[in-house]
Design goal:
three-stranded antiparallel beta sheet, mainly alpha, 4 helices
């Protein structure tokens, strides 16, 4: 990935991880593997683990320690109600940005409306 892609990804990675967790609970390495399967091949495991600590501290996920066949118990993360609310807002904001960026790309000059005031 190029530097610009990496920088843009940093801004949305939290939402991407929460979106993955909305489909099913997962542990850190599994999340990294699922991201790689989705084409995010350059994301370091350390980046994901640091992000998981942040979203746990912000109470966006529930954590359960599950025994592992190899080594210490794994922390399995699942999206909770607060995390689902955050993810809903993330998608609302994403849609707003994507729509308006596409308008700019196409040369449009539609007036901007903030995602909070949008009827979506």
């Amino acid at each position: 990935m190029g530097k610009q892609t990496t920088e843009m990804l940093k801004g949305v990675l939290e939402g991407i991880v929460l979106a993955l967790l909305s489909t099913r609970p997962a542990y850190g390495y599994e999340i990294t593997a699922r991201l790689r399967d989705q084409g995010f091949t350059d994301i370091a495991e350390g980046t994901i683990y640091a992000l998981l600590v942040r979203i746990e501290q912000r109470s966006l996920v529930d954590v359960e320690k599950v025994p592992s066949e190899k080594g210490p118990p794994r922390k399995v993360y699942s999206l909770n109600a607060q995390g689902q609310e955050y993810l809903t807002e993330f998608w609302r904001t994403w849609s707003f940005l994507a729509e308006h960026l596409e308008q700019l790309r196409q040369g449009g000059t539609e007036p901007w409306e903030s995602p909070a005031s949008s009827p979506r």
